[in-house]
Amino acid sequence: MPSLPRKVVIFAAADGLILQSTGNGPRYNANNEFPSLRIDYKTNRISSLSGPASVLSERKEFAGLESYGLVGLLSVASHSFLITITQRQQVAQIQGKPVYAIGNVAVIPTSSHADANHAITQAKESILQGEESDDSDTGSEDADVSEAESDDGDADVNTAPASPVRGSPHSRTGSISSNVTETMMGKRPRFGRFAANWLSRKAMGLPGLGTVELNADTVGIPLVELKERDIIAARSEYAANDDKSITPENDGVSPKDNEVEPPTMTKPMELLPKLLRYTKLIFSSRNFFFSYDYDLTRPVNTQPSAPNGNLPLHKVADELFFWNRNLMTPFAEADAHHFVLPLIQGFVGQSEFTVAEKLGSASSQTEPSEARILDEEKDAQGTQTASEKRGFLLTLVSRRSVKRPGLRYLRRGVDDDGNTANTVETEQILSVPDWEPSRNVYSYLQVRGSIPLYFSQSPYSFKPVPVLHHSTDTNKFAFERHFRNFSRRYGKIQSVSLVDKHAPELKLGEQYEKYAQGLNESGGIDGMPLGFEWFDFHNECRGMKFENVSRLVDKLAPTLCEFKDTIVNNGTVLQSQTGVVRTNCMDCLDRTGVAQCAFGQWALERELKEEGIDIDLGGDSSTRWFNILWADNGDAISKQYSSTAALKGDYTRTRKRDYRGALNDFGLTLSRYYNNIVNDYFSQACIDYFLGNVSTQVFSEFATELQTADPGISVHKLRQNAIDTSCRIVISDQSEEFLGGWTMLTPKQPNSLRTLPFEESVLLLTDAAVYSCRFDWNTDKVLSFERIDLRSITRIKYGTYITSTLTEAQSDEQSNVGLVVEFREGDNNALRVNTRSLRSEVDPKALDNQWDMASWFTSSQKQRTRILAFKALPLSNSVTQTQRQKSVTVSDTEWVRNICTEIERALRVGDAMETDERRPSVIESSEIISLADAKKRTGLFEHLVHDIKKMVWA
């Protein structure tokens, strides 16, 4: 496998951004020529360069930024930004190869020379300030680390820090961003949730980004002469890389220039800094890890072998854990493979420990000898008995899946492809410190992941009730698909559920058990049974006796022995792990962390026994390092999913639980609650965008709805299922021919145009009637439907249908369209309510076994005109799924008109069967609610509520 460059120097040249690899990376030839790239300012095209390394570095006009690798290229509308690693910290060494955590990144705009040069200068100043802070705060300890580095930036690794939290920092990692929770809650003013520039209703103008164009004629001009798009990119870069707010004094634009800026600039300027700040924040959170020579995306036994030796690292990386793959796509497509550095999100930690065996005990090759973890302090005092010391290294690597990624209440359960939220593969590796090939290396895998059913929980409750979604068949399909995928990757599966056996978790736990039993009754997973164990964690460990989790380990001991672990010696796999324990609670965080730590302890004791050492880690007072390592792992996974450290961390670290730990957990719970209802919505949109799961439209959706679509759930499939279900239930007359079905929005109150909130309903058309069906999208049931006989329809209007003017998207007359069906009341029209899902509000005497039928009108009202109003849903969303099967050239207005035409065609066919006379066209094109009327109807209170929401969520 070719070596990646240890450092990349970035220069802002006149015609493009130059990326020059240095250090021990690959060379083109013996003339010291290194791979180099140019990112063109005009086109953002990446092209290869070649030449001696000194050619660029000797040109004084270039301000070179020394980085440790690239995260990728972030493109937003017509803007692109290079994300590069400026600070790193070594956290481990695996097989002698260093593993680093990203400490900080720089976001460099690629729009012009002036923007790029300013960003590079600013990043260099930030690094220098960090080094000065290190010198004053950490003293000689950091200096020792720095001196241990070679010229190419690699540290001389003898002992690795136990974890990113406790390890000494790299010499360039002095100024590291704080965690997501602290920063977003206002530790830094620029992330304040009540920032004044977000109070205006015009401040959420992300859709305007799509109209910003690159101007190729502005390359190299001074900042004061930059046109609109250059100022936007420059200010965005300032916001991402500078702690100071942008003022006329520090951005090079005079007050007079500020006064005459076009108003349209406000729209993209307000959003781009927010997106870039989050980009810098998430990649500087110490949650991303990389190695130049070791594939962190794969377990130790599946590292690239000789046949793949010539492939670039990203070509052999497991896509399931390759977090910056989408951001690196432009480099891979340009054949710049040496610059593609795969990142994982999760945790990497390491601890070295020594085991003391009593002299004269049995040999390690026969019976295990009595041993204990060596207490170094007592040994230094000479109080240890005569013993033989053996050194070991324990490494923990957790890899978060890129499938169904995101944050706590916004990503729950399973998606259509069988992927579950918060899926994390954790590998525990036992080796000797120097990784001597002739010594055994042990690898033990565990997995956590959300319950593989469709469910959700409200973030607005301290104890949210899980709500199951969709039909039994839909859940069964996703459930079985999930475990088939798991089985192909890991072999046999032992599922461990830690949810409570009482409300509110009981119902979900019962459904999980039910589907597991059903899977086994139908033949299991490709012939293999699914192991299922329901361990009521809170009941078993009540009274804060978390040590009772050992009961679970003891019960599953035969299964754990059957699954074994992986043993590698001299590059040869002597034994393979044949199964995996899949653990879950509700969030797969706190209870799961305690249980996985217990399974990890069991595996370590068993592996040491293979080495001839018999030891009880749970009863050894010198194993605090093991507890801390697993606690650090739990905190890291928790921060990435819930923005706070894990609960029950005091027990994981100390094996003790007291009131102080309970109080700390209460504080973390409050912090989680705040993040769940405030910060997570925009963060989720950014994560989906980084991974390429959504388009730029995700930010437009966020600006309008303050939430975004779930890319793992096929909206088109859900809506088609609703149409099929409604058709099967409501069309009772077999003689009626089904002609078409659509999903649209309807006012909450019947016979009205603007009763908020609008509900998504199903519109069905047969050769005899139009049906308006109100649908329960959680249970896939029809709540009620109204049948309108085609002969009673008097007019169909279509046109502009604006129900709110709070955002630009809602005020767009071209995309906000709908139709209104006017009809006469009559005996052939009816309303039915599903009494199994909704309490009936009509005469109980009219009820039958399933449906409640009532005449909506009295005989004296039969000729009164009523209406059904429908508003078109967006033709597409950020998930780039077409919600309707149509040509991309069809506009919203044309799509609605086609529905009107279908209804009129069915009406005319019915008329022709009864009489030779044809009535005039009933279709009329006119505004339903115009923009002017909508502005009048949108009151100050609605504006106030929206502004408050925007102030909090945005």
From TrEMBL:
It comes from the Eukaryota. Residues 131-155 have a biased composition (Acidic residues). Residues 126-184, 242-266 are annotated as: Disordered. Residues 713-868 form the HSac2 domain. Residues 170-182 have a biased composition (Polar residues). Residues 279-643 form the SAC domain. This is SacI homology domain-containing protein. It comes from Aspergillus lucknowensis.
